[in-house]
Automatic annotation (TrEMBL):
Family annotation (InterPro entries): CoA-trans_III_biosynth/detox, CoA-Trfase_III_dom_1_sf
Gene3D superfamilies listed in its UniProt record: Crotonobetainyl-coa:carnitine coa-transferase, domain 1 (3.40.50.10540)
Native organism: Cryomyces antarcticus
Superkingdom in the source lineage: Eukaryota
Name under which the protein is recorded: Uncharacterized protein
Length: 157
């Protein structure tokens, strides 16, 4: 709701980046670990109840929202594009990435931040963000055992 209001709309608008998804997942994992610790110390069973909206409500109610002058400064610096409740990620992400590129290309999209990774099952490579942690040359070989796979590639089992 606050993201929509920040753009002058009195309607909820899905934020472009999945902050609620990510943070709700972290909260769920922490709750599971806490339940396992309690069970090992005291016994019993525990119910975990998480939802995207629980996190979003906590964030707004406990941490607050940006002031109107902050929203206006960010919005003005990025062309005042307004998103609506019916816009999905396929619509909004390319537009937001375009705004980021237009305003922060030299800070965020520097070539040294990216690397090409081989996608063996597709016979191609993709450009991806380099790992933040860097290891000394020849000491550790970074890589993935299984590449990204789309739905329907593997047989169900």
């Amino acid at each position: 709701m606050e993201f929509g209001r920040a753009m002058g709309n009195d309607e909820p608008v899905t934020p472009v980046f999945p902050n609620s998804d990510y943070c709700t997942g972290i909260a769920g994992v922490i709750a599971i670990i806490e339940a396992l610790i309690r069970r090992s110390e005291k016994g019993g069973s525990y119910v975990i109840d998480v939802a995207l909206n629980y996190y979003s409500q906590w964030l707004v109610n406990s941490c607050g929202v940006y002031t109107d002058d902050v929203w206006q400064r960010v919005w003005n610096a990025n062309g005042r594009r307004s998103f609506r409740h019916y816009h999905n990620m396929l619509y909004s992400i390319p537009l937001v990435l375009g705004m980021i590129r237009a305003n922060s290309e030299e800070k965020l999209f520097r070539p040294e931040f990216f690397e090409d990774r081989e996608v063996k099952h597709l016979g191609t490579s993709i450009r991806a963000v380099k790992p933040i942690l860097q290891f000394p040359e020849g000491k550790v070989e970074l890589g993935f055992n299984v590449g990204t796979r789309t739905n329907g590639v593997d047989q169900p089992r």
